[in-house]
Amino acid sequence: MPMTRDMEFKTNYITPDIKLSVFEDELFKTEVLFEHHLLIWFISGETKIIQAGTSYVFNAGDIFLIPRNQVVTIINYPKDGLPHKAVGMHLTIERLRDFYSKLEMKSEAGFTDKIYSFKNHPLLQSCFSSLLPYFDLQEKFPESLAALKITEAITILRTIDKNVDGILANFDTPGKIDLAKFMESHFMFNLPLEKFGYLTGRSLSTFNRDFRKTFKATPQRWLTKKRLELAHYQIAAQAKKPVDVYLEVGFEDLSHFSFAFKKHFGYIPTAVVRN
User: Fold this and answer.
1) Long-range contact set of residues 129-138: C-beta below 8 Å, sequence gap at least 24
2) Which H helix or E strand runs over 93?
3) Is 3 domain-assigned?
4) What pLDDT score does 5 carry?
5) Which element (helix H / strand E) includes 49?
């Protein structure tokens, strides 16, 4: 579940696949497994997106595409006195199948965990900005018009990035992959075990069985230990403050993080000696 202090997060949908999100508090943090590709136009504020091994920071005007089946931590902030505000468009498998079924093309579909950044490309910006008046409509937004706007966005993406077909035209589900390698690079994401199982190509029961066999520990015990060790490293070796690391390593609450840290190491996070 998304978490924040005194959260005021508003989402206005003109269709199930097109939304305007506004957040006005200090921060909004969530872990997300994207079922569909998500194309975002960032109007104001700041967003930090954390993936396994990398992170991105986006600001006002940026447009970016998050491919489906990606697990990311998203931390949204207001900035410069303005709320965090963004328009998002889901590019669903159903719409993409329909779109590509009409094309005579051969595409080498592939997997990527890369987030595609299009900066403030004028074609995409025009497509998104044309949606803004519709969020004030009192009547229902026509599905036929929504389909046209999504088709327009897909067409623009294909025009400005010749490699995007390999992502958008890939309709495969995750296959069974190396559990140890995946968990070692994704343990900081606070997802239900069912989601970890899905991403590694396993049912929940198979995931639990393979996990115990691989790590000789329960998933929750192992995940907590790994997250605390990462936090300790960031505080001790990278001189980060506990308040700046607890969200990124997979904890939802600073007090719970401090309690777990002391229980594991025998001292509170602020007592870590920095070399």
Assistant:
1) 129/41, 131/14, 131/18, 131/87, 132/20, 132/87, 134/14, 135/12, 135/14, 135/20, 137/14
2) helix 93-101
3) no
4) 38
5) strand 46-51
Taking only the tens place, the pLDDT of each residue in 242-267 is 998 998 898 988 999 999 999 999 99
pLDDT tens digits along 16-60? 999 999 988 877 888 888 889 999 999 999 999 988 878 899 999
Q: pTM here? A: 0.76
What does the block give as tokens for 228? 């605390």
Bridge partners of 38, per DSSP, are 66, 90
The CA-atom distances, in angstroms, between 90 and each of 8, 9, 24, 117 are: 23, 19, 23, 16
Specify whether 158 is located in the same domain as 186.
no
Which among 155, 128, 93 has a CA at the least distance from the CA of 21?
128
Cα angle value 253/73/3 (rounded, 5°) = 35
* Pair (28, 127) in one structural domain: yes
In the chain, the amino acid numbered 200 is: T
Nearest CA to 274 out of 246, 248, 236, 238 is that of 236
Amino acid at 177: I
Do the Cβ atoms of 196 and 220 come closer than 8 Å? Answer: no
Q: Give a yes or no: residue 173 inside a domain.
A: no
Which CATH number do you get for residue 231? 1.10.10.60
From 168, 187, 207, give the residue that closes a domain. Answer: 168
Select from 23, 15, 32, 4 the least CA-distant residue to 186: 32
Q: Report, as ranges of residue numbers, the positions in the chain whose pLDDT lies below 50.
A: 1-7, 275
User: Do 199 and 163 share a structural domain?
Assistant: no
